[in-house]
Amino acid sequence: MIAGTESPTTIAGPRDVPSRRAGWTRGTVKRPRILRRAASDRSGVAAVEFALIAPLLVLVLLGTVTLFDFYRESLALERATASMSDYMSRQTELPKSVLDNRIIATLKALVPQPDGALEVRISSLTRSSRGFDTDWTYPPDASPGFAARPIPVELLPAIAIGDTILVTETMIPQNAMFDVVRLKGMTHSSVAAVRPRFTKRIAGPN
User: Fold this and answer.
1) What is the DSSP string of the chain?
2) Are 63 and 176 a contacting pair, CB within 8 Å?
3) d(CA 111, CA 171)
4) Mean pLDDT of 99-124
5) Residue partners of 194: CB distance under 8 A and separation at least 6
6) Which residues, other chains included, contact 97 with Cβ-Cβ below 8 Å and sequence gap of 6+?
7) pLDDT tens sequence across 73-88
8) Backbone angles phi, psi at 170, to 5 degrees
9) Which of 45, 55, 133, 191 has a 20 to 30 Å separation from 80 between CA atoms?
């Protein structure tokens, strides 16, 4: 610089002038340390997520167990009914003692439930020109479950006029293992129809 001369005046450019707009500041805004630590701390996230979804998982688990228990009971009743129906088709007569002490007792053993819960109706039908005529039904007095329910002849296979068929009907109520979604229980029923194998007509109880 030459003595006696004035230094040149520097004019600030638009980028050198700090903005004075209200509410706006150039640069990065730094958050307080406590907020930064809270945002980066993930130690309790898993616990919170589990607390939110745990009730739903428990509900799904209990519902699955309850539905499987219903399916297992229904399958047991269907298999027991078919097995006893096949056994009776091999007989030439079914006296009261056999029906009570062997057929119905075995059904109750294969499908364990509280005493009196299992209801059974066994009928021998003969095909006629009018449809199906009932030869005999056991027990003769219909249980509450079958009192207002006719024999489901619409489910029977087509047979020739004069032929007979043995129909076994079972019914059992079941309470839900867990009361979920207001499902307190259901009633299972099964029907099996067989033709006599060694006789034209199976004699029933006197």
Assistant:
1) --TTPPPPPPPPPTTTSPP--TT--SSPPPPPHHHHHHHH--TTHHHHHHHHHHHHHHHHHHHHHHHHHHHHHHHHHHHHHHHHHHHHHT-SB--HHHIIIIIIHHHHHHS--STT--EEEEEEEEEETTEEEEEEEESSSPPTTTTT----GGGSPP--TT-EEEEEEEEEEEEEEEEETTEEEEEEEEEEEE--SSSSS-B---
2) no
3) 11
4) 89
5) 85, 86, 88, 89, 165, 166, 168
6) none
7) 999 999 999 999 999 9
8) -130, 150
9) 133
Residue 184 pLDDT: 84
Token reading at 187? 């009633």
Tokens of 1: 């610089």
| Tokens 């399958």 sit on residue | 75
